[in-house]
Structure formats: structure tokens, C-alpha cells
């Protein structure tokens, strides 16, 4: 490891190459964290940010806005980061989580208010503010533990955060997923290891394959293949850490007849090969 590498994620120069990093940044006027976080090209992952004390200022010029206790920010990949303690307060404490989202989160990662690519949720109900704070704290605690499944647990808690944020959108219409899509999703979950085609799925619910494709995308926010691959890869991760099956066997068990294709999809979704994943978490 390079000895000049920054090991503190609160300081510039830290390499956020991991899947999930979480922390609290307690900025006090004049303190050593009292600088502007300025990443003009954004980051490779997403950041969700919760103000727990004081006030922060995001962006400058025409795009400038303030965040206060209970407000949340969501920075998608590549969106510029520019924020600091507000001149109007002595402190700005914010919790944050850096993550690579699961594919099926697409529509959870869009909020109604957006400035310069950053999503904003304000006016969160007091009860929910406390629940969100607890979820952030649990993820922060988990991000310090190295054990199999901590990533899964953290992503599960993070999903709860994203659902609560959705529930706090101002124009929320409590919309249920189309029952035909629920049927397709349930079918795929039960038959993940089988090689079903979109035509077969469409037949199940008496729609044409192209109508099913559109409806699926509208309701779930991704294609059928993305959804299926996402589920298969989560199952592969479990098998990699809990079984002694070879990678070829796992590939077959989760429905990929071609292990090379499996490794490619795995690497694409998990950021590393199945072999390295197994070595890293065992
Ligand atoms: C820290 C910042 C925090 C967040 C993480 C990724 O240095 O204080 O707001 O941006 O980096």
C-alpha cells in the first residue's frame, strides 16, 4: 500500500473504492474539518447525506441552497459535490453513506426535488427523522465490521432509508405495483435457476412480450434481464460465502449455463470476480 494514501475518509484524498463506507462529519467553525468538500467530477458511487446538527450550504451562485437538521441529500454517480458549513451557523454535522446501488433500486434513487443533479428531501416527519438517524447509525457501525454478510445487511438497512425517503416525498401517491408484474416477479424468484424467456413470462399474464417489457420497466425501473441478473448475483454471493461449491457449480445452480458469462455479469454487478469475492469475505 502506498504510504501517502489517505486513511481518513473525512479528509481529501481518501480512496472510496469500497462498496460501502459510512461516517459522520462533525464540522465545527475553525476546526480541521471546516473546509469545502469539493469534488467537481463527483464520485464513482452514490452518496446519501443526512444533516443531524447545524446547517450546511450546497453549491454556490444560482444553484446555492441550505440544508438543516433532518434534510437529506442524494448525490448520484458523477454529480459534482460542493458543500460546507453554512456561514450562518457555528457547526454542520452530517452523516453520510457512500454506496453502489442495487440495480432494482433505480426508481428509489430519484426524489422530486433536484438541483444541479443532487436530489433533496426536506420536511421529513419528526418520527421518520429519528428512524432515519438510527438506520444511518446502524450502517455506520456495520461498516466497521469485517464479516460475511455485513454488506448484505448494510444494503438492506440502506434500502429501508431509501424507502423512508420515498415515503417523505411531497407528492407521494401511494401506488401499488401492477399485480401482473408482481406475478411475473414472483414467478422469476421461484424459477431463478431456470432458463425462461420473456415470451414465457408474457404468456403467464396474457400480455405481449413487448407490452410486458414496457410495463416491467415502468413499474420496477429496470429491464427483466437486469432484475433477474441482480437476483441471481445476490444468490451467488450467498453461495460463495456459505458453500464449498465451485464457481462452475454455483453458476449452474443459479441459472447460468455458461460460467464465463456468469463471471462477467458478477464482475459487472459486484465490482470484482466471484473468486476474489469469495477470498475477500471468507
Ligand atoms: C467526507 C465528507 C462527507 C462525504 C464523504 C464521502 O470527507 O465529509 O460529506 O462526502 O467524504
TrEMBL record:
<dbReference type="InterPro" id="IPR003313">
    <property type="entry name" value="AraC-bd"/>
</dbReference>
<dbReference type="InterPro" id="IPR018062">
    <property type="entry name" value="HTH_AraC-typ_CS"/>
</dbReference>
<dbReference type="InterPro" id="IPR009057">
    <property type="entry name" value="Homeodomain-like_sf"/>
</dbReference>
<feature type="domain" description="HTH araC/xylS-type">
    <location>
        <begin position="182"/>
        <end position="280"/>
    </location>
</feature>
<dbReference type="InterPro" id="IPR020449">
    <property type="entry name" value="Tscrpt_reg_AraC-type_HTH"/>
</dbReference>
<dbReference type="InterPro" id="IPR018060">
    <property type="entry name" value="HTH_AraC"/>
</dbReference>
<keyword id="KW-0805">Transcription regulation</keyword>
<dbReference type="InterPro" id="IPR037923">
    <property type="entry name" value="HTH-like"/>
</dbReference>
<keyword id="KW-0238">DNA-binding</keyword>
<protein>
    <submittedName>
        <fullName>Arabinose operon transcriptional regulator AraC</fullName>
    </submittedName>
</protein>
<dbReference type="Pfam" id="PF02311">
    <property type="entry name" value="AraC_binding"/>
</dbReference>
<keyword id="KW-0804">Transcription</keyword>
<keyword id="KW-0010">Activator</keyword>
<dbReference type="Pfam" id="PF12833">
    <property type="entry name" value="HTH_18"/>
</dbReference>
Amino acid at each position: 500500500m502506498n504510504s501517502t494514501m489517505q486513511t481518513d475518509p473525512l479528509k481529501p484524498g481518501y480512496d472510496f473504492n469500497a462498496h460501502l463506507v459510512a461516517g459522520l462529519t462533525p464540522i465545527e467553525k475553525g476546526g480541521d474539518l471546516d473546509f469545502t468538500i469539493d469534488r467537481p467530477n463527483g464520485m464513482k458511487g452514490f452518496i446519501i447525506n443526512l444533516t443531524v446538527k447545524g446547517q450546511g450550504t450546497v453549491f454556490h451562485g444560482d444553484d446555492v441552497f441550505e440544508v438543516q437538521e433532518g434534510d437529506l441529500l442524494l448525490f448520484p454517480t458523477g454529480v459534482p459535490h460542493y458543500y460546507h458549513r453554512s456561514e450562518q451557523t457555528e457547526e454542520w454535522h452530517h452523516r453520510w453513506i457512500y454506496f453502489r446501488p442495487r440495480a432494482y433500486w433505480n426508481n428509489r434513487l430519484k426524489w422530486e426535488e433536484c438541483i444541479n443533479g443532487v436530489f433533496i428531501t426536506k420536511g421529513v416527519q419528526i418520527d421518520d427523522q429519528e428512524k432515519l438517524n438510527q438506520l444511518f447509525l446502524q450502517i455506520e457501525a456495520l461498516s466497521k465490521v469485517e464479516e460475511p454478510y455485513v454488506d448484505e445487511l448494510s444494503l438492506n438497512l440502506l434500502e429501508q432509508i431509501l424507502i423512508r425517503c420515498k415515503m417523505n416525498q411531497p407528492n407521494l401517491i401511494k401506488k401499488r405495483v401492477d399485480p401482473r408484474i408482481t406475478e411475473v416477479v414472483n414467478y422469476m424468484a421461484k424459477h431463478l435457476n431456470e432458463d425462461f424467456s420473456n415470451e414465457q413470462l408474457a404468456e403467464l399474464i396474457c400480455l405481449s412480450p413487448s407490452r410486458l417489457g414496457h410495463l416491467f420497466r415502468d413499474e420496477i425501473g429496470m429491464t427483466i434481464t437486469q432484475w433477474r441478473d441482480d437476483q441471481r448475483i445476490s444468490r451467488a454471493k450467498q453461495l460463495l460465502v456459505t458453500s464449498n461449491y465451485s464457481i462452475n457449480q454455483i453458476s449452474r445452480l443459479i441459472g447460468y449455463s455458461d460460467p464465463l458469462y456468469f463471471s462477467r455479469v458478477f464482475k459487472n454487478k459486484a465490482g470484482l470476480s466471484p473468486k476474489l469475492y469469495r477470498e475477500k469475505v471468507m
